Amino acid sequence: MKTSRKGLTVNQKYNITGWTFLLPAAILIFAMNFYPMIQALILSFKSGIGNNLKFNGLYNYSRLLEDRVFWTSFKNTFLYLLIQVPIMLALAIFLALLLNKKDLKCKGLFRTAIFLPCCTALVSYSIIFKTLFSFDGYINTVLLNLGIISSRINWLGQEETAKIVIIIALIWRWTGYNMVFYLAGLQNIDDSLYEAAKIDGAGSVKTFFKITMPLLRPTILLTTIMSINGTLQLFDESVNLTGGGPANSTLTMSHYIYKVSFEYNPQFGYAAAMSYIIFILVAVLSFIQMKVGDKR
Amino acid sequence: MKKKIVALLVSAVMTLSLLACGGGKETSGDSGDDSSKGQELTVWCWDAFNVDAMKKAGEIYTAKNPDVKINVVETVSADIQTLVQTYAMSNNLDALPDIFLMDDQVFAKYLQNYPEVFAELTNSGIPFSDFASAKVANSVRDGKNYGVPYDSNTVIACYRTDYLSEAGYTIKDLTDITWDQFITIGEDVLAKTGMPMLTNVQGEPDLLNMILQSAGISVFDEKGNISLVNNDGLVEAMNVYMELVEKGILQEQTDWSGYQGSINNGNVVGTINGSWICATIMSTDQAEQEGNWAVTNMPKLNDYPGATNYSAQGGSTWAIASSCDNYDLAVDFFKETWASSTEFYDSILTSLGAIATYLPAASSDAYNEVSAYFGNEAIYSKIVSFGGKIPTINKGIYWSEEKEALGVALANVMSGKLDLETAIKEAQSTVEFNIGM
Predict the structure, then answer these.
(1) ipTM for the assembly
(2) What dotted CATH number matches A65-293?
C-alpha cells in the first residue's frame, strides 16, 4: 500500500469498519462450524474403536462400499427424498396460492394454523405420530370405526407402512414451513402482471405456469435445496418414530451414523467418513439444482 | 448520525452477549469446583426404582455422616452411556458425576473402550466376594474390579393367575415346562380368553437372547467372534420365537411404554423378563391386579441338550468415576451401605422390590417374606434360588451389534422377505463387519 500511515482513505476506513463488524461472526462460524468440519475430515481418515484411532488412509471410505446397512439407509433416505420432497413442495405451492387469494377471509388464522406444525419440536411430534399410528392408536381406531379397514394395521411394524408414516409425518411437519417462503415469493409478484394476463385472455392454469411459476423460480430453488439438505440429514423421525425399524427399513443415513458412534462399539472415524459422504451428496445435488434451476 | 448510533448499539449488544457467554462458562466452572470441594456425591441412575434405592442408601449414610450430601440425578440409561462416551472422547471427565449406574449388558464394552472413565476398586476394601460371582465378573477387567454389583438379572416368568384359571390352568401347569408345552397352553388360553400369553418390544430380541442363554447357547465363541451361522441352538430358538408371534401367543409392542402398558392395563396374561420387571408389574393403577400375579421359571428349549428353565436379562452395576475428587468418600459410602448393610437391602427389597446380588442379604428374613401382590408367595427367595441355576455363555463387547442384527433377522424372516438361513447369514456378516473395524 502506498498510502501514508497517518491518514486512511475513506474506502479503507469503510473496509476496516466492515471487517470489524464481520469479525465476531466470522470467528464464531470458523470456530463452531469450519474447525469441526476440518477435524471431522481428518477423523474420517482414521479408524479404530473409541479413542484408539490410527491413520488408515481411505480405509473408511472403501469400507463404506461393503456396508450393507449403510446402503439400506442410503436407499431409504433417497426414497424419502424422491417421494416426500415433490409432494410437500407441490402442496406448499398449492396452499400458498390459496392463502394468497385476495378475497379469502381469516387469512391470518389459516396461515398460522398451517405454519404451526413447524413450531413443534421434532422429537415431540415424532412421538405423537408414533402414538397416533400405534397398533391400538387413534388412526387405527378412526379408520376401523369408519369402516375403511376391517382389522387394525400394524403401521410401524411393516416396512412399507412404516415408510409411509414417516413420509406423512414429514409432510405434516414441513409443508407449512415451505409455504411461508412461497407466500413471500407470491407477494413479490406484481399484480399488474396478472391483470395484463387477464386482459390478454389467459386462464388461471396458464397464468400459473407462465407467470407464477417462472417468477417463483428462485424461491422454488431455495426450498428444494433446503428440503434436499434437510431430508439427507433426516434423524429425529427415524430415531423417535420408528427406531429405524422394522429390519432397518426406515433407517436414515444420519441415524446410522449415530448408531455407529453411540450404540455400537464407537467407530468415530467411520462415522465421520459417512458424514462426509452426506456432505458431498448435499453439495453435488445443490450444485445440480443451481445449474438446472437458476437461469437468471 | 442515526446509523452510527444504531451501529454502536448493535456492536455493544454483540460485545455484551459475547461477554455473557464467557461469563456463563466461568460461573458453571465455579459451581463444579464447589460441589467437589463440599462433601457431596452426585449419582446418575435411571428409573424411579433405582433412584429410590440410591436415595435410601443416601439417607442411611447421611444419618451417620450428616455433613455428606448424596445428590441423586435421574438420568436415562441410554443418556448415561452417551454422556460417558462423549465426555471420555472429549477428555472432559470432570463433567461426569461421582457415581453412575451402568447397564450390565454394556458395562464390559465401556470398560474396554473407555477404561479411563472408571475408578479401580480392587483394593478399595469393598468385599467383592460377598456379591454373586457371575455378576462381579461382569465389571472385572484384567483381574481388577471396576464396579459394585447391584440388581439381579435373574429371569422370571410372571403370569396373571386370574386369566389362567379362566382358561382352566394354574401356575403349576406353567412351571418347569418346555416351549412346546407352553405354545400348546398359550393357544388354548388365547382361544378361551382372547389374551396373548406374552408381550415383547418389536425388533428387540431380548426374549430370544433369554431363550438362548437358558439353553447355554452362545452366539459368540471363546475368542469373542460372532458365531450365528451353523448354530443349531439359534435356529431352534428363533423358530420358537417366530411360532410364538405367528400364533398370536406373543404380542409385539411398538416400544417400551407400549410394553409396560400392555402389562399394566391387563392386556396380556404375562411376561418373561429380568426379575426387575416386578417393579413394573406392581406399578399398575388397576387395583384388581393385586394378588393375581404369580412368579415361576421360564419354559425351556424343548429337548435341546443343556436346556434349562433359567436365564438372565438386564441388571446393572454401580461405577465410581475416575474423575471423582471424593474417591475415599465414595468408597466409604459403598462400604457402609451397598456392600455391608443387610438392613438396607431388606428395606429396598420390601419397599421397592429391588432384588440385589449381595449374598449376605439373601439369607435375611426379608427374602422369605411373602408378597401379597404375588399371591402371598415368597417370590424373592424363589428368584434367588433361580439365580444359581443360570447357564453361563460367552458374551462380549459386541452385544449391541449382535442384538440389533438378530432383531433385523427376525423381522426379515417374519415378514417373509428372507428365509431363516439367509437371514442368519446376513446377521452374521453384519456383526462381522462391525467387529472387523
Answers:
(1) 0.76
(2) 1.10.3720.10
